[in-house]
Design the sequence.
């Protein structure tokens, strides 16, 4: 225990505490300043009344500081909840992109099957009538349809590649934005909490 002689409103007191002497002196100066401020505004007040009012003012500061800290901690917890919601949304977007890609894969496979059947049919038609104009027209028509189907496959493959690339970009952007936003929010809240605690620590009755 440390002991230091201090003055509050001109009266000496022996103040004991576990904190160092410099801190105890600062506490005494803070209380002394509060009492003197009250007495300077109302010179008719007794020392006891001034000390009582100073205690009430300091208690008021304590309650307000505690409320502020509690609100900041609650806000930080809310940000943690937002982080969870944000992560869930990222998963949903990823699942949606994966679903679209999967559907495109199925469409491509179906088109490939159709083309394969059409080629087989074309070959059969060619065998039935080698130089027949009628079958020749059918064969050419089938060939055109096959070409269209092949173009459709190319488009779907290109679309799939674009979706996959877009999916990667979305995931990267969302992830990057999430951490930037949460980092800034947490830094702001930590700074506010630190400031509130610092204000609290400077007050005699806020310990």
Sequence:
């Amino acid at each position: 225990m440390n002991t230091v002689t201090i003055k509050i409103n001109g009266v000496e007191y022996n103040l004991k505490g576990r904190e160092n002497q410099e801190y105890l002196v600062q506490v005494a100066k803070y209380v002394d300043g509060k009492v003197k401020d009250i007495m300077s505004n109302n010179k008719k007040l007794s020392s006891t009344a001034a000390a009582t009012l100073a205690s009430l003012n300091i208690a008021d500061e304590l309650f307000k500081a505690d409320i502020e800290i509690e609100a900041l901690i609650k806000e930080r917890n809310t940000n943690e909840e937002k982080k969870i919601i944000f992560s869930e949304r990222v998963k949903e977007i990823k699942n949606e992109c994966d679903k679209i890609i999967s559907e495109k894969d199925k469409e491509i496979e179906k088109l490939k099957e159709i083309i394969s059947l059409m080629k087989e049919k074309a070959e059969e038609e060619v065998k039935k009538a080698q130089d027949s104009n009628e079958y020749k027209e059918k064969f050419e028509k089938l060939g055109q349809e096959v070409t269209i189907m092949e173009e459709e496959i190319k488009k779907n493959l290109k679309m799939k590649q674009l979706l996959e690339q877009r999916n990667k970009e979305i995931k990267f952007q969302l992830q990057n934005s999430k951490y930037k936003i949460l980092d800034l929010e947490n830094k702001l809240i930590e700074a506010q909490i630190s400031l509130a605690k610092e204000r609290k620590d400077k007050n005699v009755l806020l310990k």
About this structure: The chain has a mean pLDDT of 80. The first helix runs from residue 21 to 41.
